[in-house]
Specification:
- The structure holds two protein chains of two kinds.
- Chain A is α+β, with helices and mostly antiparallel strands.
- Helix content of chain A is 22%, strand content 39%.
- Chain A contains three helices and nine strands; from the N terminus they run αβββββαβββαβ.
- A five-stranded mixed β-sheet of chain A has the order 3-9-8-5-6. A four-stranded mixed β-sheet of chain A has the order 2-1-4-7.
- Chain A is globular, with a radius of gyration of 14 Å.
- By secondary structure, chain B is α+β, with helices and mostly antiparallel strands.
- Chain B is 19% helix and 29% strand.
- Chain B is globular and about 50 Å long.
- The chains are: A alpha+beta, B alpha+beta.
- Chains A and B meet through helix 3 of A and helix 2 and helix 3 of B.
């Protein structure tokens, strides 16, 4: 099912609220891709618990969702991988499809999620994830 | 009677990594998604409710496949090889020393899922042309499944067009096949589309597809209409230009019309016509509109065609609330009075029966 921006934002609000007030446990975050932009472009998750990212691609073109630090992204800016999927932090999201990936962030910090397909980062497909301690 | 309308000659140099085909008013997509369209020339003629759209795809050397997607105002009744000199002759008419190369380019390949509907397929030289009908998602998916590497702005741009006209032309240009056919660098393949429509327009925003917001879009658009057309946006002159320059606007010369009429497929050219040349010279980020044309002489180009207003948002007829309130007030006040009056007058109020 495809989610619009408002539902996605609502889901994130709920998740963020739950993350702030509840004990550690599984988390689910929905990120919608529409017109080659991540929605939301910023979000927070707790460290030390599995977080499932539901990546909803509403565009008729493929996208990537790669999350990591600066060194990680610098590597992928010049990478030649046709697709991703072997690592939960490197995901290809086919056109008009939804992909789930689950990641546990052990340490607090700030990471970025970026689409590294040609021209997509420059177009603005960049998001920031804060991992709260 | 004939009405020449739109002829879009695209003299473009499309610079791609390995091969460089250029195209008309379409988005140009290289194998890596990169696009660098230097200049585009297009000719569009409108006559008797039929748009004649002529553009050229030029082989610019190199190898590989390239693709373009062009929004259309309607379903073409024919897609055929265009004449050899229509675009060149138009440039010669308005530019004393024509030195532009006609380019057009594209690529593709693939298959489909819930893709756009294929209405027509044909091959012209090294060009595989497909006419599609569908929404932005369907057309984008078809393109992706057929080897087009769409740039990140494609989803929004395709929706921009599909909301108004869900008809697109996808052209795949195989540079390797062109080389095997013996096409030399600079050889153009003109394509002539015949499109019945009462709503002609020239897609301009698509020219910025894949370009950075600050990159310049340059294009020459030639229009041939029965009478002087009204345009939206209104093209200014060089001094007041805001991205569109009205470079030429005059009755078409007899020699031009005769030359155009003698080209292949151009017998529809009328005896008299108005020639307009609009030069597009603006940053891709500012090119968020198309060129609406009113060739009827009424001077009312469509805001929808220009992309300023979404299609089908014509406001539904609103109920005349004020009138309803007035009628209700009259009823409330007058009805008791009428009832009382009728009751008071009784049968005496009736006209006397005829004797």
């Amino acid at each position: 099912m495809r989610l619009g921006r408002l539902p996605a934002a609502a889901v994130l609000l709920v998740v963020a609220t739950a993350a702030a007030g509840c004990a550690a446990g599984p988390r689910t975050v929905t990120i919608t891709i529409h017109y080659s932009a991540f929605d939301p472009p910023r979000l927070s998750v707790p460290s030390g618990v599995p977080v499932t990212f539901v990546l909803v691609n509403e565009d008729p073109i493929d996208h990537e969702w790669l999350i990591g630090d600066d060194a990680f992204h610098e590597l992928h800016r010049t990478g030649t991988h046709a697709t991703h999927g072997a690592s939960p932090t490197e995901v290809t999201v086919p056109a008009l499809e939804t992909v789930r990936t689950t990641i546990t962030f052990e340490l607090p910090g700030t990471l970025a999620y970026i689409c590294h397909l040609p021209g997509h980062e420059a177009y603005g497909m960049v998001g920031v994830l804060s991992v709260e301690g | 009677m004939r009405r020449p309308w739109l002829s879009l000659a695209v003299a473009t140099a499309a610079l791609l990594i390995t091969a460089a085909p250029a195209m008309a008013c379409g988005g140009l997509i290289g194998p890596n998604g990169a696009v660098n369209l230097l200049r585009t020339t297009t000719f569009a003629g409108y006559h008797d409710g039929v748009e004649h759209y002529v553009t050229s795809f030029e082989f610019a050397g190199g190898g590989g496949a390239f693709g373009s997607i062009t929004p259309l105002p309607g379903i073409p009744t024919s897609v055929e090889r265009g004449g050899d000199w229509t675009l060149q002759r138009l440039i010669r008419e308005t530019d004393p020393i024509p030195d532009l190369a006609f380019f057009a380019a594209e690529s593709a390949g693939g298959d489909a899922l819930r893709e756009a509907e294929v209405l027509l397929e044909t091959t012209i030289d090294a060009l595989d042309i497909t006419i599609l009908r569908g929404g932005g998602d369907e057309v984008g998916l078809w393109a992706q499944n057929h080897g087009f590497r769409l740039p990140p702005d494609a989803p929004e741009v395709l929706d921009f067009y599909a909301d108004r006209s869900p008809i697109f032309m996808a052209a795949a240009f195989d540079a390797d096949a062109a080389a095997e056919r013996g096409q030399a660098v600079g050889d153009g393949t003109p394509v002539h589309l015949t499109i019945p429509t009462d709503n002609p327009w020239v897609p301009l925003r698509i020219l910025g597809l894949g370009k950075g917001a600050l990159e310049t879009v340059e294009a020459d658009v030639y229009l041939l209409t029965d009478t002087k057309p009204a345009l939206l946006p209104k093209a200014g002159d060089f001094a007041e230009s805001d991205g569109l320059i009205l470079d030429h606007s005059a009755a078409a010369s007899e020699s031009l019309l005769a030359d155009l009429r003698s080209d292949v497929g151009m017998e529809w050219i009328p005896e008299t016509a108005w020639l307009t040349k609009v030069v597009v010279d603006t940053a891709a980020g500012d090119l968020d509109y198309d060129l609406a044309i009113d060739a009827s002489g009424q001077g009312r180009p469509s805001a929808v065609d220009a992309g300023y207003a979404p299609f089908s948002t014509n406001p539904a007829p609103r109920p005349p609330v004020a009138l309803y309130l007035l009628l209700a007030a009259v009823t409330v006040v007058a009805l008791p009075w009428l009832v009382a009056r009728v009751g008071a007058s009784g049968p005496a109020a009736r006209p006397p029966a005829a004797a």
